[in-house]
Amino acid sequence: MPTVTYRCSNCLEHTLTREYDVSHFSIRCPNCGEFARFIHEGVLEQYEAFEESPPAELDWERLGRMEKLVVAEKLVRQGKTLDDFEVEVDDEA
Q1: Distance (Å, rounded) from C-alpha 90 to C-alpha 72?
Q2: Is 21 part of a structural domain of the chain?
């Protein structure tokens, strides 16, 4: 059975492999000691790629970290494209 790698969202150092494919799971990280979310490595790689080079189709900088991770998860694991996302503008800001 294939394995999937997950990385600690707190320290970004520790990785774990599992024989299941989910977007994330939460456990205490043996490296940093935090009860943290371990994020699917493919999702985290997409997130980091967009952090380095934000997509022109999406106002990446306006999104919060969790919103960015949701976008990355939908692209990597659900087969969505950037055309599937819209960023709402708050005119009151």
Answers
A1: 23
A2: yes
